[in-house]
Amino acid sequence: MIVCSCAGITSADIRAAITWMRAADPTAIVTPGKVYRALGRSPECGGCMRLFVNNMRAELSADLPPDLRDMRRGRKSGEGP
Ligand code: FES
């Protein structure tokens, strides 16, 4: 799926860039800017940022154990609201 039409970045490109960054440094903080740089591209209009970040979050949280997901909301996965 195309995520950034300006730079021609797909969700698979984002996944590959994050995998590569995590392999190089598992403690690296992954940002949209770092993903663009890893892919050798740069954003233009910024209209994709919400979708871009959502794709990054989905990819990054896929690596987390289930108990560590949703910690930002102050509860563990599977607990009610
Ligand atoms: S669509 Fe991504 S910068 Fe324009």
UniProtKB/TrEMBL annotation:
Instruction: Give start and end of each BFD-like [2Fe-2S]-binding domain.
Output: 2-49
Q: Name one Pfam family in it.
A: Fer2_BFD
Q: What is the protein name given in its UniProt record? A: (2Fe-2S)-binding protein
